[in-house]
Amino acid sequence: MLLVEKGDIAGATSSASTKLVHGGLRYLEQYEFRLVREALTEREILLRTAPHIIWPLRFVLPYHRGLRPAWIIRLGLFLYDHLGGREILPRSRGLDLRRAPAGQPLQARYRRGFEYSDCWVDDARLVVLSARDAADKGASIRPRTHCVAARRADGAWRLALRTADGRETTEAARVLVNAAGPWVSDILANVVRHNAPTQTRLVKGSHIVVRRLFDHPGCYIFQNADRRICFAIPYEDDFTLIGTTDEDFHGDPSAAACSPEEESYLLAAVNEYFRVPVTPDQVVWRFAGVRPLHDDGAAEAHETTRDYVLELDAPEGEAPVLSVFGGKITTFRHLAEEAMNRLAPFLPGLRGAWTARAHLPGGDFPWNGGVALLADLKRRYSFVPATQLQRLARTYGTRTATLLGDARALADLGQEFGGGFTVREANWLRREEWARTAEDMLWRRTKRGLHIAPVEIAALRAYLGD
Description:
The chain is of the alpha+beta class. It contains 12 helices and 20 strands. Strand 19 and strand 20 form a beta hairpin.
């Protein structure tokens, strides 16, 4: 198998999500019961697959009088508890916000609420670990390689590839999968030269990150008057992630950015609930991604389905191309399984489905075994500060010990660039995870960029020759 990616792995939409593995509670209002059931089932499969980068999270929904009635919320949570065959995550419950810790940061008018379970995920690491797993099984992974042309010839695909430094190569393939996200239609039109009947609706979602707004480990889901919702999620220990927006996008997806209007919208959304107002000067980071949704004709962007469509073009005697439209991060594994089922007739001897019982690299421990893993690492590497070791364990899982190797003192890890990020970790990311630049390492493979000063980033760039 060959994977080519024009930029860095997870360099666009896949690293710009709200970082949730969730069923999509609000999709029940759109009667997307099959999608919610599938996502809820996948939620626990993924938790077992990668427990180092995915973990349970309790969501607090304050009851806002005048928006959705309480009985509607209770009914939705009942369905949410039972649609997906929940085994691990605790069920929903009502909350007295006057007494619960989650009520303390909120305005006094919010006296009751609801609590339910979903999961948090390090989205960019989910992508790179999937690529790492494929490479470990023999795939060739080529980031910064642009597929500039794809032509059918003699029952196969002939691919013209160009690397970032201008080198050109050709490859042959029996099947072609177009999973280019917001560029899926562009690839079909300008690379494959095929007009697809399926239409893509590009929807931008923006987020802001502020200093930590509350001390408890749960997160908030807030209802807005426009019937959209907004999350406030604990992030990187010292911060809170707020998002997301939904607005139609036109233009180059790589140029997507959080606009001042979107930032104001997000601040207004959370300030409707928090006791202490969040102000623009508290924002430390902004990011935006463009979702490639299947255009179902919804009037509003936030009502557009998050379901996916797989479109197979396979003329008699010709090599097939499968294009992926839409989808959400929670259902990525099931989507891939469905894609392989569609391609099975063209790949004789293909192995049956197996990923539901597999672990991603570093995730080969029980979903609730993080405490035991960390205790073992502390015993073996007692010289590493506890917070740094915990961050490594939540990033690399059981491969943390391979990364640290035979180190016997902090000095063995090489120069620290700040935030516990060392030369040894940088070398690991370059060798094992295709990282090349400081941005790759600090904003996608990790989020150390939030913890490192500009002068320290400059030192890392100098070391990398970036």
